[in-house]
Design goal:
The complex is a heterodimer of chains A (about 190) and B (about 475).
Chain A: H1 2-14, H2 38-54, H3 56-64, E1 70-78, H4 87-100, E2 104-106, H5 109-125, E3 142-155, E4 158-171, E5 177-190
Parallel strand pairs in A: 1-2, 1-3
Antiparallel strand pairs in A: 3-4, 4-5
Helix pairs in contact in A: 2-4
Chain B: H1 3-19, H2 25-28, H3 30-38, H4 41-50, H5 60-73, H6 77-93, H7 98-106, H8 118-134, H9 138-158, H10 169-181, H11 185-206, H12 213-226, H13 229-238, E1 251-259, E2 264-275, E3 281-286, E4 291-296, H14 300-307, E5 311-320, E6 328-333, E7 336-339, E8 341-345, H15 346-356, H16 358-380, H17 384-397, E9 411-419, E10 422-431, E11 436-445, E12 450-457
Parallel strand pairs in B: 1-12
Antiparallel strand pairs in B: 1-9, 2-3, 2-5, 3-4, 6-7, 6-10, 8-9, 10-11
Amino acid sequence: MCKILIPLMILGLTACQTRHVTRLDPATQIDLSGRWNDSDSRKVADQMIFELFDSDAFKKYAQSKTTKPVVVVGMIRNKTSEHIDPDNFVKKIELVIHNSGVADLVESSEFRDQLRVERTEQQDFSDPSTVKRMGMETGADLMLFGEMTSETDTFNNRRVVNYITTLFLTDIETNKRVWYGQNEIKKYMKN
Amino acid sequence: MNPGKFFIILPLAFTGLLLASCATYYQKHYDFNSEFEKGDLPKALETLQQKESLANSKSKFLYFVNNGLLLSLLGKYEESNAFLEKAFMFGEDYQINYFHEAAGYFTNPNMAVYKGEDHEHLMLLYFKTINFLKMNMPEEALVECRRLNIRLNQLSDKYHTVNKYRRDAFIHNLMGIIYQSTNDYNNAFIAYRNAWEIYEQDYSSLFALHAPDQLRKDLLNTAWWTGFTEEFYHYREKFNMPEYVPVKPEAELVFFWHNGLSPVKNELSINFLIDHRSENMVVFTNEQLGIAFPFAIEEKKERSDLQSLDIFRVAFPKYDERPEYFRRGSIELDSISVPLECAEDISKIAVHSLRERMVLEFSKGLLRAALKKATEMSMKKEDEGLAALIGVVNAMTEKADTRNWQTLPHSIYYARAPLKVGANKVIFQIDADHDRARYTFTYQAKKAQTLFHTFSSLETSLGMPYRLY
């Protein structure tokens, strides 16, 4: 009887579990499921920013302008089988462009619409001395857009996924592609 | 009997009495269940909320989801979501309590906390999402959508064999519908494509359920609207719909029909014989059912404890299905009739999931029975009276875990219908073998708006409260 009751009592004493939470350096790479995660977003952003700034075509384009080129971010289409938010790495790229001073950024269509509503309402409701003028938006020179694709191969409990992120920086006036960058992340997972 | 033993026997007897109720979970809550099945939802809610102590019980998950579902049916979406959020957080924070688990092995599995079936955790988020959409809160619905995605990933990581319910096509489909309603066609396309693959690869073989035609159209529409022309033509050919051209209506209605009621867990008692032929092994057998479970016995004492045990009863859970009463449904508007298509057969998923883990259930049940009997036999050598009492308590406490979310529908059907801006009169018709019901609804639609409606028919083909069945 004791052989049964004693382990039960020990279990009783150890039953109260606590949840452990640890704060980590955001740069720490942790892979749990093998799906796209923050480390992949960071890797794509870091490598593509470097490729963009290092490209001769972009340097040449920037030098040809009398002012800093103005960039707007367009649509990054996701063709993978996962719900990946490309904003996670696009915002990092935008941040570096903005802070580097190499180019200026204008708001994408999502935020532009809100600004236009605000500006329109100012015409009717704001102090005339503070009303912002219509028709003074800065037109972008370049649009950054692209797509994400993935190729998956599975056999039994093994899976290989290759994520390909392609970004283009295109001259809005001429449709000429100024910069073209591609990043691949290949993962092998075994259950 | 000496006085010391009295203090051992008394709590044992008391525990036995407490756990002795042989009623299933359904029967314990019969008042609530019968009111719900009769469609007296306010009374059912009142009955449920009178049992507030359930919110701190080992079945608290069921208390939360039953409240959430009932309040949703009653149109109290905010209150419903408050309960469903509690159920969701329970799932997030759930940790195994080893003491309760061990207690389950020595008495019965109802001593452990009910953690909820996989499909139940997905369904609670379905109801929560629909509540937000009905309240015209698409951003909040999208949050639930992301939670669903995480839950789906957890589910697919949990199981690795193809025969398990490890991917939910309807939930992917639902995510597509929500993304589409918020004009996020790219994510909608991904969700629809995943849903279509799962219907074709998993659901068709596991549950005899194929991808709805509406899903094919939605997949093509969102491919086109995202600008995935290559994918559009690829799937149009694959679906054999060469003439299909995506058309955006002025507004849309997505109509979900919750048909019938999900199965109820009941108890199945099986008598086992012990076969002592092997040296280090005893085999629990039931020849009638063709079941044989070997258990390794290492110690001589354990072997002798089980030696005199020849036959015993073990209780296992099983599902009693409640077949649908209504067989098909459709919505009619402006001389168009759109059939409602089955997108999720919750009944089949529940039964399949239990069947798939039945080996585990058998092992747990037999281990429980073996532990109980070994304790009884061990005690018999010290005190026959106490051993007899333990035997009585063991027999009284032997029962299966019959808890499940019993207010869920049997199946979910859906249809997407075009609306015009302004008032739209829609007739919803459901047909049984010799019966028909028609309901008329009027929807006020704005330009490019997607309206959501759910209709629950609680009738089952049993035609009477489940208990009498």
